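Budget justification, computational time. The allocation requested in the original proposal was used primarily to generate structure tokens for proteins on the priority list. As evidence of use, we reproduce two of the resulting records. The first is shown immediately below.
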Amino acid sequence: MKKTKTPRTTLAPGLAKVLKRLHYPLEVILLCVRWYVAYSLSLRNLAEMMDERGTAVDHSTVYRWVIKLLPLFERRFRKHKRPVGKSWRMDESYIKIKGEWKYLYRAVDKAGDTVEFLLRARRDKVAARRFFEKAIAHNGTPETVTIDKSGSNLAALDAVNADRETPIKVRQSKYLNNIIEQDRRAIKRRTRQMLGFKKFRCARILLGGIEVMHMIVKGQLNDGGVGQTPAQQFYSLAG
């Protein structure tokens, strides 16, 4: 079976420092982290799979790798993310953390590319405005934003538009938001295997990693025209 090579040298600043404390080969660590965010696998699944490949590793160790490395990968990805379109579709979905429902705000453009995501404890105007401010800061100002009938999302956009010379056009249509409802299935499919999150911070990190992998699969990482596979692109974030 052909193996996907993982980087061995020229590690990104910060990553080398973290890896010094992890005590496993880089290839094993990156493979486990990628598989965890890319596929519907549990931590115990990964530990068993590594054992079959001749590497004994505890599921809790894999979890530590994931929590330590994903924030570094997300920051690296954002530096090389392809620009998105100016017509956005925005919505939020429920995520259970420690038995309570929290809210994952997301937006995609009309081509289905992910614009931004943000996990918040509440579903209100403040949370929605924070999402729009983050999305605009990272992706520029959209011409149009399509939302559902949510009053808090509309109020947040009205607040954002209040300080703008050229306001963002707002459309409220559940039908036009089908594209984001379809897109979030990939995220839900992966989180379902996790059976709920225990801590808000860890949920934010894991969701960020899942979103990054999802964007890579959709071709949103600028690899300089090299034509790398999604796996190679993910590994490239290491250095």
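The second record produced under the same allocation is shown here.
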Amino acid sequence: MNIPGDWLPNATIQRAILHWTAGSHKATEFDRKHYHVLIEDDGRLIRGIPTIDLNTLPKAKSGYAAHTLNCNTGSIGVSLCAMAGAIERPFKAGTQPLTKTQWDMASSVVAQLCRRYTIPVGPRTVLSHAEVQANLGIQQRGKWDIAKLPFDPAFDTARECGDRFRAEVKAKL
């Protein structure tokens, strides 16, 4: 499934940041206020309320998607509807774990965003919220999305998950 063209306005964008909602498998109105594209458990795409062009460089506009602390301008927020009640350590995926279907759709969505907005795939341009502090040096408030993959426990650090995601995005370009 492709992102509909009318969801992709002209904008100057430099990165895509992957999140999970820490909620249910279905997008809520609250979720829709904070992200540009949401992916439900079955892979269905839900449009966020703020349009991508509100997060454009050089300065985000009123009503932008506030998905990453001090890192919204020039950033598209893509979120997987999942991980309600999750605990990082010892890891528990909660009642609504992230699905492989969502993960696969996310790499397709981000590949399409990279093509549309000419975003090169790298650890500073395609990353998860859990990688923002380490990769961009922007202090976050303990965000660990996405540092664990419930469907593949072999991937249990933000960097491992991020590297896997970037490789999957590159393969779809």
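A brief technical remark on that second record: The mean pLDDT is 97.
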